[in-house]
Amino acid sequence: MRYKKARLDSFVVAVEARLAPLQKPRGKTAQQRRSDAEAFDVVMTGELEIAPVDVATEEHTVPVDGHPDARLRIYWPTPERAEPVTAGGLPVFVYFFGGGFEIAGIDWVWWDAAFRERARDAGVIVIAGEYSHAPEVKYPAQPEQCWSVFEWAATHAAALGGDPEKLALGGASAGGNLAAATALMNRDRGGRPVRLLLLEMPLLDMTMKHLDLEDQAAIVPKPFFRRMAGMIVDQYLGRRKATRLEPYASPLLAASLAGMPPAVIYTAELDALRGDGEAYARALSEADVPVTCLRLIGQNHGSGSYRGHVPASDHLHRDIVATLRTLHDEPVDYAGKAAS
Q1: Is 189 left (phi over 0), alpha (psi -120 to 50) or beta?
Q2: 133, 210, 301, 309: which is the annotated catalytic residue?
Q3: Residues 303, 307, 312, 316, Cα dihedral to 10°
Q4: Residue 64 pairs with which residues in a beta bridge?
């Protein structure tokens, strides 16, 4: 049997047909685009009836040496804040939102709702870190901010009711880039025990050489997508080509991925970033890092947002929750088993 060419899931088509009339043309400046996207976030979540669940939250601001401060929000899995502990405690999942380095934030309704649901459903503490937007602030501020958020989370885990031995990192799209960069920085600088690196549709190679443009071309024409991707890269990194090769800018291009935490990576069939995520999974495997990569057939870059309307989006949430729940258990020593 021969399979048909990739096409968008019919449930995604239906949702995007509903949302299309609600979208306005994006502004020309970064500030206008940011404002337009924030307004659409409110409209989209209202149309899809996505509402925050009741869990305890708390905000902090973290100083970052040589760069703007970073804000973070803590989400506990219950309406009550967890008490400090001296041993044990809940797993702590540090997460960075996506938005092309230019838009979005922890105050966005969709992201805030997702953090609340993941904390509640997985029984973990979620710490959502915020980083500065490009082009007003450029690399390397963002990975340094994210690393500072992670260091703060690890240092304060017990005071939050968390377990510093059960740390995890995650992020989506541009946030996936920053989560992977943070994991590299932790390996290079601190070596704190990280149990899991969870990436959703991550952007990991800023040279754009791993983009997979074939299947997504039915949604966004290749030339337009390349121009759009090039603008994102230039806004974030500047025009110096060598910067794109730095491992904290392009984690996929790191000279070695040995010592990275076990990873779970999600990609979407109709997403150009599919190439980044799947190449990163192969590179981790070659470095003997335990890794699982799941491709969501018929999905695009943003369809994971459509919870309650797209079966694959709901399954993605359940799969992420199941993965986060494993943080409560003792980890499997895969290297030991392979050597025995």
Answers
A1: alpha
A2: 301
A3: 100
A4: 67
Considering 9, 41, 112, 271, which one is annotated as catalytic?
271
Q: Which helix (H) or strand (E) holds 34?
A: helix 30-47
pLDDT tens-digit map of 90-121: 999 999 999 999 999 999 999 999 999 999 99
Residue 154: exposure state from Cβ atoms within 10 A (0-12, 13-18, ≥19): buried
CB contact at 8 A, 89 and 157: yes
Q: Which of 173, 303, 305, 313 is catalytic?
A: 173
**Catalytic residue at 112?**
no
Q: Is 333 a catalytic residue?
A: no
Alpha helix positions (H), the chain = 10-19, 30-47, 109-122, 141-156, 174-185, 222-237, 274-286, 311-325, 334-339
Q: Is residue 337 part of a domain?
A: no
| Angle at 170 (CA atoms; ends 169, 175), nearest 5 degrees | 125
Cα–Cα dist 313/305, whole Å: 7
- The model's pLDDT over 276-293, given as tens digits with 9 standing for 90+, comes to 999 999 999 999 999 999
256 is catalytic: no
Q: What is the mean pLDDT of residues 228-241?
A: 93
Per the structure, the complete domain to which residue 96 belongs is given by 10-20+28-326
Question: Is residue 155 assigned to a domain?
Answer: yes
Question: What does the block give as tokens for 77?
Answer: 């899995």
Nearest to 145 by CA among 62, 205, 254, 74: 62
Specify the number of domains making up the chain: 1
The CATH number of whichever domain residue 77 belongs to comes to 3.40.50.1820
Q: How far apart, in whole angstroms, are the C-alpha atoms of residue 24 and residue 36? A: 7
